[in-house]
Amino acid sequence: MSINSFGHLHIENSFADDLPARFYTRLETQPLTNPRLLHVNNEVAHALGLREADLQSPAFLKVVSGSEPLPGGQTLAAVYSGHQFGVWAGQLGDGRAHLLGEIATDAGPQELQLKGSGLTPYSRMGDGRAVVRSSVREYLAGEAMAGLGIPTTRALSLVVADDPVYRETQEAAAVVTRVAPSFVRFGTFEHWAQDPDSLKLLLRYVVPRFYPQCLAAQESAQTDLSRDTILRFLNEVVVKSARLVADWQTCGFCHGVMNTDNMSILGITLDYGPYGFMDGFRINHVCNHTDTHGRYAWNVQPAVMHWNLYRLASSLTALGLEPDELKTQLQVFEGAFLQAYQGNLVRKFGWLSWHEQDQDLVDEWWRLLHTQSADFTLSFRRLSTALDQPESFLALFDEPAPAREWLEQYRRRVQFDGRSEADRVTQMLSANPLYVLRNHLAQQAIDAAEKDDASVIDALMTVLRDPYTERPGFEAYAQAAPEWARHLEVSCSS
């Protein structure tokens, strides 16, 4: 990017400006061979203040492919640590990612990070690259989550190239430009758990910038934060994380690798690897083929998030905070999770409010879906009209009798509210998506992208940005997974 072309943007890198060099390594990206701009997310681009002429310029491709730095930014790879699959992994870091800088926007500064842009000091045994397969999945995932209203990173662009990359087989290289207010993780705090001075610096960077409501009078990025401020900050992170995982649960999303280094300090969905939106519901569904013990199955995601928050809290003991006062903040997790989870279900089932006895009906719902592996998304969606038109709903179940019996219980619950049928249906259609990023749809986009064809990405972007509104001509994107899709597997290389 040339300064003349992009002088209308305010670009800097506060992570580099406000934190000392031990938090990162400044380095250049490694350019790709024959990079091609496969797709640009115009919605994200416009939010960043990029103009159409900017996106079409050769300078834009050079930056998002890693051939040139972002003018005004400072390219770096951040260091962090973390627990991976429940085991302390020690030092980690951006092994294939480069933070380019941040752009000031109406919604606050947004960081741009390239993924797949080459080796860094934190690559360990990796090659610093990403492949088309994983890059397409990440590119689409952010839009799918944003369309559902779930906090997430998003992507600005997708670049493909000719460089060979070796995973299970030889694949082609790609780079995604990820966008978020910050990529600071639980693992960033864990890395400095034995270094109080560095922890203080990190808190002075994160809290005033992203949690200013936690600050006491006279506190700022130039002062050490008080004990009460740090506890308020932890409380906020706990609540945000609880609400996030409640959103995951109620849209059938499995993260796949809920390691502490993949958890955002901002409570947003971060690091889309072997994720998955469930097709046929299984309460213990594992989306990551690498997760052979089911540590990150759907039904344990809330408990894992809570466990991860304990690891974050433990890192703060180096500042003299007592375990009991940290534990007090962690105890708000269950209440925050249940409030968000039950609130989501109220909207999805078309109720006016949550009643204690609703838990039995919900438990029966999950049991029904699990026993018959009914489609998660379509079961909720078709329930909206099932009281008047039960055939379409019942067709989702191999044995419709239990579903019909449950439906009668649901009818009585709806009658208890006494609201109009039209209001209930309207609420349910606005809370239960018709379109989600199913694995087979992502695979179709990947197959096309590997031929430099972005048409499937275009189509998916259209429905995923507004997944609640039925669109004529997009019926194929609202169908249950075909038989061949049952054999699709995603792993940590995905």
What does this molecule look like?
The chain has 494 residues and is of the alpha+beta class. It is 42% helix and 13% strand. It has helices at 3-6, 14-18, 42-47, 52-56, 58-64, 132-148, 186-191, 196-210, 227-251, 301-315, 323-330, 332-349, 358-372, 376-383, 390-394, 400-417, 421-429, 439-449, 455-465; strands at 11-12, 24-26, 36-40, 76-78, 81-84, 87-91, 97-103, 110-115, 130-131, 154-166, 170-180, 253-254, 276-277. The strands form four sheets. Strands 1, 3, 7, 8, 9, 10 and 11 form a seven-stranded antiparallel sheet that branches. Strands 2-4 form a two-stranded antiparallel sheet. It has a two-stranded antiparallel sheet with strand order 5-6. Strand 7 (97-103) and strand 8 form a beta hairpin. The longest helix has 25 residues, at 227-251. It is globular and about 65 Å long. The mean pLDDT is 96.
Structural topology:
Layout: H1 3-6, E1 11-12, H2 14-18, E2 24-26, E3 36-40, H3 42-47, H4 52-56, H5 58-64, E4 76-78, E5 81-84, E6 87-91, E7 97-103, E8 110-115, E9 130-131, H6 132-148, E10 154-166, E11 170-180, H7 186-191, H8 196-210, H9 227-251, E12 253-254, E13 276-277, H10 301-315, H11 323-330, H12 332-349, H13 358-372, H14 376-383, H15 390-394, H16 400-417, H17 421-429, H18 439-449, H19 455-465
Antiparallel strand pairs: 1-7, 2-4, 3-10, 5-6, 7-8, 8-11, 9-11, 10-11, 12-13
Helix pairs in contact: 6-18, 6-19, 9-10, 9-11, 9-12, 10-11, 13-16, 18-19
